[in-house]
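Case study 2.
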Amino acid sequence: MSAIVRLGTQGWSQRDWVGTFFPPGSKQEHYLPFYAQVFDTVELDTTFYHPPRASVVRSWARHTPSTFRFTAKVPQRITHEARLSNIAEHLVAFVASLEPLGERRGPLLVQLPAEFTRDKGSHGVLARFLAAAPQDARLAVEFRHASWHREEVFDLLRKHRVAFAWTEWRSLPRVTQVTADFLYLRWIGNRADLDRFNEVQIDRADSFASWQADLERVLPQVREVYGYFNNHWAGHSPSSANEMKRRLGLEPIDWKSLWPQRELF
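Prediction:
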């Protein structure tokens, strides 16, 4: 396998994981340090709602090794409220807010709303946004409407070395275009399907197999892969991430082997 493959979850602050991923009795301040012993990447969802405080970002860096990578969702103020228009200075500020991560900062995800469809005007908006983006920001774009699944869009992304995010979400068609030197994948699921996240509840064997085939086909074309599972996809995203690792020939870490051993008396 030529590419560096990093697989993890969308966020880590999940109380349902205590006793099923985190050691029993774990407190929230221990979640990230433990998570970083098992996985080498995580997608930050909190950044979608507001840019993080510098003290918080420094804490993320302090609790993870230098080999760990954080990817982050671009704030909704940019993607959903402004719809990418006249917002370049806010993207610059957001990138700057992540500076304390240093080498731990991975790609940034531009998740567009499903209502943001493609036409001549919106295509131009995207083109101007990408042209104005900071050169040191590696971007991936998640289109949630099939009108963007066009060669003109793929060519635009390639021009700016921006990744087309591969996504499994509702009935959105799967598109496996390679438009950058890295891949960005998201397994999301349906929020209405599950309300607890302490175990796998949906059999995704067929989906795993098809994603594995798609990934193995394009791995020689890229340098890195970033992939993130949501709890809603199968019920327990750490288990999903480890399953995909196994299927790709990577060595998953058994998190229970890291739990403190009870003393026997």
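Residues 205-218 form the longest helix (14 residues).
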